[in-house]
Design a protein that fits this description.
The structure is a single chain. The protein has six helices and eight strands; from the N terminus they run αβββαββαβαββαα. It is α+β, with helices and mostly antiparallel strands and 204 residues long. The chain has an eight-stranded antiparallel beta sheet with strand order 1-2-3-5-4-7-8-6, with helices on both faces. Helix 2 crosses helix 6. The radius of gyration is 15 Å and the shape is globular. Strand 7 and strand 8 form a beta hairpin. Helix content is 30%, strand content 23%. The chain has one domain: HIT-like (HIT family, subunit A), CATH 3.30.428.10.
């Protein structure tokens, strides 16, 4: 099993906030909303299909989401589910990660209303492994309910880069700042890590 630091060397991690035996949470470089966090696997996977069936994943994810909500307000979750090394769907990281983002709006509705031509279907997180099979996918949900988390799933035929980042950037009035490669928001990332680390230490 790779350590969190070894996984960080793949370019996923910036600042580790919390970790469990198999997962860790970091503040996100390129997060244009303060409080943007990634939950990553310590073992190398390209997507989270297998993790969604694990009780320990959801226990950790809920702990992280509760932490973010306590400091930054309501959250949504999403994943760009790549299935190949170097796929642009993965948004620059060839490693599985779930985005937890403070956002009070309806991300599922915004995804369905996007101008990008995608076919969406209701899905629980547990169903993704079967429904997606070998396809790349996009998944988002407005709230957590462990493996029964209900959201919207789209199977994609061609790699689709930074889809949810674009949707969120439009929603918060920053349409030109979605691209993490150009707009790194390192100050936001550092502030997120500092504040959440303090909260985590206070409740531990």
């Amino acid at each position: 099993m790779a350590s969190s630091r070894e996984a960080a060397s793949r370019g996923v991690a910036d600042r580790i906030i919390l970790e469990s035996p198999d997962f860790y949470a970091v503040s996100s470089i390129g997060g244009f909303i303060r409080g943007w966090v990634l939950i990553c696997t310590k073992q190398h996977h390209l997507n989270l299909k297998s993790s969604y069936g694990r009780a320990d994943f959801w226990a950790f994810a809920e702990r992280v989401a509760d932490l973010v909500r306590s400091e930054f307000g309501p959250t949504v979750m999403f994943e760009h589910g790549a299935n190949a090394e170097g796929s642009s769907t993965a948004c620059g990281s060839n490693h599985a990660h779930l985005h937890i983002v403070p956002f009070a709006g309806n991300l599922e509705a915004l995804a369905l209303q996007s101008e990008v031509n995608l076919s969406w279907m209701p899905s629980t997180a547990n169903e993704i492994a079967v429904l997606a099979n070998d396809s790349e996918y996009l998944f988002c949900a407005n709230r957590f309910n462990r493996g029964e988390t209900n959201g919207q799933l789209a199977l994609i035929e061609r790699p689709t880069s930074q889809f949810f980042r674009r949707v969120l950037a439009d929603a918060v009035g920053l349409p030109n700042l979605f691209d993490y490669k150009v707009n790194r928001f390192e100050e936001f990332s550092a502030d997120t890590a500092h504040r959440l680390t303090q909260v985590a230490q206070a409740v531990s």
